[in-house]
Amino acid sequence: MSGNPFDSEEEPSAASDEILEGFLCPICRADLKSIDYLTEHFARQHAEEEDALKSVFKDIFTKAKKKILNNFDDERERAAPATGTAAASASNASAAASASRTSNARTRHNIFNQLTKQSVGAERAHMEYFQSVRNPRLERYASETNKLIIRLHRLLKDLPSDAVQRKQHEQQTVPWLDGSSVKLCPNCAKSFHFARRQHHCRLCGGIMCNDCSRFLQLENAMQLASLSSTRSEPLQQLLHHEDRAIRLCQHCLWLLDTRQDMHESRTCRPLLAKVYDEIRQLQKQVAPDLDMYVKIINSLLDGESIFTIADAGALRGKIGQVAETIDLRSKRILTIHSEPGSREEALKKAIRLSCVQVIKERMLSLPPLPDEALIKQIQERKRMETEQRILTEQRMAMEAYERYGAANQVGVSTENRNFAQGSDLQSLNNWSAPQASTTKSSVDDPLIEQINIIKGYIKQARQDMNFDVVETLELNLRELQREVYERQRHSSNSSSATTPQADG
Amino acid sequence: MNLISGIKLYIEKMCTESGPGMKIILLDKETTSIISMAFSQSDMLQREVYLFERIDSGRSNERLKYLKCIVFIRPTKQNIQLLANELRNPKYSAYFIYFSNIIPRTDIKYLAECDESESVREVKELYADYLCVNPNLFSLNIPDCMMNMNWLPDALTHSMQGITAVLLSLKLNPVIRYRAGSQVAQLLAKMIYDQTTKESSLFDFRANVDGAAPPLLLLLDRRDDPVTPLLHQWSYQAMVHELLQIRNNRVDLSERPSVPKEFKELVLSGDQDEFYGNNMYANYGEIGSTIKQLMEEFQRKANDHKKVESIADMKNFIESYPQFKKMSGTVQKHLCVMGELSSISNKRNLFEVSELEQEIACKADHTAQLQRIKKLIADERVSIDDAIKLVALYALRYERHANCDTSALLQIIKSRGGNTQIVPALIEYAGMHVRQGDLFNMVRITDAVKLTRILIKGLKGVENVFTQHTPLLKETLEDVFKGRELDPMYPAINSELVPFRRPPQEVVVFIIGGTTYEEALTVHQLNNAGYKVILGGTTIHNSQSFIGEVLSATSGIQFKHTKSMLKYCSPDNL
C-alpha cells in the first residue's frame, strides 16, 4: 500500500461496489475535477455538517489531499519557486544594474559627460496573461494524466498472469466501451472486419484498430505507477512473459509520455552539470578573497600595519590553489564524452574558455606581492611623517600657549609632548610597547586580559585566513591599547601633575 | 541618454532574471547583431551564457535538458511560429522569453497554448530593438528603405518599431515633429504617434517635475541633405566606414592583401576598445600622432620587458601579461587600419579629390570649379567612383545655374565607362524640387544674421580645407535648441504636447534614408556642448551605400526633372 499515492483517495468509495474516480467529495461523492474546486466545495457545502462526521472525513481528506498534492508537484512546486526566483532576481537585477551602471559611467566618462545615471528602460511583463492561458489547460491535462496513472496502478497492482483472468481484471478496472455499434476505427476511419478487429485501450477503454494501438512496456508502466517490479510475484512472472506490454490509445500514451518527459527534464543532472556547479561554487567562494587580497596589498602599500606581508602571501597561495582547482575541473569537463560536432561539445569548450578567462583576468592579473624592504621603507616613511605632523601640531599648540602668556605651564606641556609622541610610536610599532609594559606591571587588569584574548583570536583568524575578521579585530585591539595607554598616562599624569594642579 | 548602456542594461536584465546555471541564448538575425554591438562573446560567457543559437537557421535536434534557454527575438510572425514549434517540443529545461518590441496579445495566447510541458518561466517585452553604434548613434540596418520614392512597407514598420524601442528604452514620451512636405516622414510620424497613443500606458513616463519641456523626436528626410553622404570623410570612424566599411562595428579586411592574418576581421567598438572610444571622432592627422604616441608608449613597455633577466622579471612580465597583450593588440590593430587608410588615400589621390569636394560643397565658384572637375575626372589616378561623386556634387550644386554643364561632365564619365545613371537619379531623388532649407547657403539678402555669419566665416578663413563642410543637421539642431519657430518647417503631429516657446532638453533625430558618421560627429560635438541629442537612421551610409539607396529609391519612377540628361538615364548605359 505504501508508496502508492492514490490508495487513500479511493478509500471513501471503496465501501460501495461502484467504482468512482477523480476528485471526489468524501461526503456527497461528487466529482469536483480539480483540487481547488474540491477544497472550495468542501469548505462551502460541508462547513456546517456535524463536527463528528467532519473530523472522521477530515482526516482522510487531508491525508488524501496531501498525497495528491505531492503528486501534483508539477503545478504547485513550480509555480512557487518561479515567483520566488522572480522576486529574488528582480533584486539581483537591480543590484547588477547599479553595478554595471557605475562601471559604464567610469569607462566612458572621458568621452561623454552626461551619461552618469541611467536606469533600465521600460518593460512590460506578459507572464500573468501567459499563465492565465496556460495553466487551466495544463491543469486539465494534469488531472487527466493523474487519472490514467491511478488506473495504471490499479491495473498493475495485482495483475493476474493468466491471460483470461488478466482480461477480466483489466475490464473490471477500466470498463471497455461497447464496440457493437462502432463500425470504423475512430482514429484512422478504416472499417472493422474479421481481419481488422476491435481493440480497447486499457486505460480509457476506447476502441481502435491494431494499427492505431500503441504499447507501453511493462517496465515503464511499473515505473510510472511507482511500483517496483521486484515486489509482486505475478508481475515478476509477467515480465518474462512474451506479451509484456499494455495496449494504449495514442492520446493516453502521449499524456503518459509527456509526464515522464517533464519528470526527466526536471531531474536531469548529468555529470557535466555537476562539475559545472562545483566550478561556479569555487568562483563564488574565491571572489571575496580576490577583493580582500587587493585590499591587503593596498593597505600594505599605504604603510598601514593591520596586515602583514605573510597574510598577503598566504591569501595569494590560497587563490592560486583555487585557480588550479578551477583549471582542473574545467579540463575534466572537456574529457566528458560527447558526440563530436555536437552542441554539447561546443558548450564544454565555451565553459573551458570562460574558466580560462576568469583565471587569467581575475586571478593571475592580481598585483604581485610587494617587496618586504619596500614595505618597511614605506612604513618608516609614514612613521616619520606622523612624527613630523605631531611635532608641528605641538609647536603650533606651544605657540598658542605662548601667546596666551601662560608661561608657567610650559613644563607640563613638554611633558605631555613626550607622552603623545610615545603613544603614536607604540601604535605604529604594532603594539609592542604596551605589551612590554603590561608584562611587568599588571597582568590582572581586565583590559589587558581582553587584549590578550583578542590577540589569540587574531592569530586564529589569520590561520583560517579570515581576513575580514582580522581587520576588525586589529582595529578593536588598537582601541583597547589606546585605552590602556590613556589610563596609564592618566595615572602617571595625576601623580606627576599634582604640583600644577595645586598651583591652579 | 546612452543607447549602449540602454541595450546593455536590458541584456543584463535577461541574464540575471534567468538565475544561475548554464544558459543558451536563442536569437534571430537582427537580435544577434543587436547583442553583438553591445557585448562581446567573452562578456556573455561571464554571464553564464555559453551557447548562441539562431532560431531561424541551422538548428539541431540535440536536447540539452540541463540548460536554461533565454529567447530574445523580434516579435515577427515567422519568429512566433518558430518559437511555438520550439515550445511544443522543448529542447531545454526552462525558457525565459524576451521580445524586443510590442507583441500582440493574441500571439502570447498562441504561445501559451503551445507550452504543454510548462517550460516557460518568463515572458516579457524588453525594448532592445535597435543597433547601438555609438552611445548617441543608432541604426536599424535597413539598407534600402524606399522604392518608387515611397516607403517599402517592411522598412516602414521596422522603422516605427525601432524608434519606439529607442523611446521606450530611454523612457521618453516626445513631441513628434516631421519634415514638412516629406511624405515618408509624415507617414512615419503618424505611425509612431498611433503606436504611442495605442500603448499610452507604456509611454506614461512621469513628466519632468520642474516643468521642463518634453523631449523632441525629429523625423528628417535624407533628401534634404544629399551632400553629406557623398563627401569624403576625414574623421576616423567616418573614414574607416567610407573606405573599408563598418558593418555592425566590424571591419572586414580579408580582401586586403597586406593585412596580417589575425586582423582579417576587426571589431571597432568604442565601448570595448578604449583607444577607439577616445579617437573615433578625431581626424586623420590627429589619429596619426596619437598612434605614434601610443606606439612609443608601447615600445617603452616592450623595451622594459625585453630586459627580462632575472626570474623576478619574468614573473613580472607574466603577471602583467593580460594588459600587455591587450595594449599590444590595440596598437597593432589601429596601426593596421591606419596603414590601409593611408594606402587607399594615396592610391586614389583622395587629398586632391576631397579638397575639391569640399570646395564645391561650401563655395560657389562655378567656372573655376568646373575646370578643376574636368581636369580631375579625366585623371586616371582618380577612381571612377570618385569621379562620379564629383560630378554628382556639381550637378546638385549647380542644378539651376545658367551655365550648368552636367552633360559635358557626364560625357567624360561615359567615356571612362562609368555608370552615368547615378547623377540623374540623384537629382530626381534630392534635387531642388524636393529639398527644403538652404543646403548650399544660397542666402537671400534679407536674412541679415545669416549673411553676417557667412561673412565672418569668410574673413576668418578656413582652418582645414578637408573639413570645411558642416552637415545641414547642425543648423537644424541649433535652430531647435535656440527655440526658433519650428512649426512651418517641422510641424508637430501631437501639438497638444508642444510647450510654449521652450526648447526641448532632449532630442532624438531620425533620418529616413540613412544617417552618416559625419552627422554623428556633429551630434557628438553638440553633446559635448551640453545638449542631449541622439541620432539615428534607417542605416548608416557611406557614399557607396548611399548611391545604392538612391538607385533603389528612384527605380520605377519617371524622371521628370532631368530631361537634359535623358540620354544618360538608362541603366544599360554602362
TrEMBL record, chain A:
Biased composition, class Polar residues, residue ranges: 491-504
Annotated FYVE-type domain residues: 179-257
Chain segments carrying region Disordered: 75-106, 485-504
Ranges of biased composition (kind: Low complexity): 80-105
Domain of life of the organism encoding this protein: Eukaryota
CDD domains, per the entry: FYVE_RBNS5 (cd15716)
InterPro entries (alphabetical): Rab4/Rab5_effector (IPR052727), Rbsn_Rab-bd (IPR021565), Rbsn_Rab-bd_sf (IPR036531), Znf_C2H2_type (IPR013087), Znf_FYVE (IPR000306), Znf_FYVE-rel (IPR017455), Znf_FYVE_PHD (IPR011011), Znf_RING/FYVE/PHD (IPR013083)
Signal peptide: none
UniProt keyword list: Metal-binding, Zinc, Zinc-finger
Name the UniProt record assigns to this protein: FYVE-type domain-containing protein
Taxonomic lineage of the native organism: Eukaryota, Metazoa, Ecdysozoa, Arthropoda, Hexapoda
UniProtKB/TrEMBL annotation, chain B:
SUPFAM superfamilies: Sec1/munc18-like (SM) proteins (SSF56815)
Gene Ontology CC: cytoplasmic vesicle; endomembrane system
Protein's membrane topology: Peripheral membrane protein
Gene3D superfamilies from the UniProt entry: 1.25.40.60, 3.40.50.1910, 3.40.50.2060, Syntaxin Binding Protein 1, Chain A, domain 2
Coiled-coil segments: none
Domain of life of the source: Eukaryota
Entry keyword Membrane: yes
Pfam families the UniProt entry points to: Sec1
The keyword Protein transport belongs to this UniProt entry's keyword annotation: yes
Record keywords, A-Z: Membrane, Protein transport, Transport
Record's subcellular location: Endomembrane system
UniProt record, GO biological process: protein transport; vesicle-mediated transport
Sequence similarity: Belongs to the STXBP/unc-18/SEC1 family.
Protein name from the UniProt record: Vacuolar protein sorting-associated protein 45
Top-level taxonomy: Eukaryota, Metazoa, Ecdysozoa, Arthropoda, Hexapoda
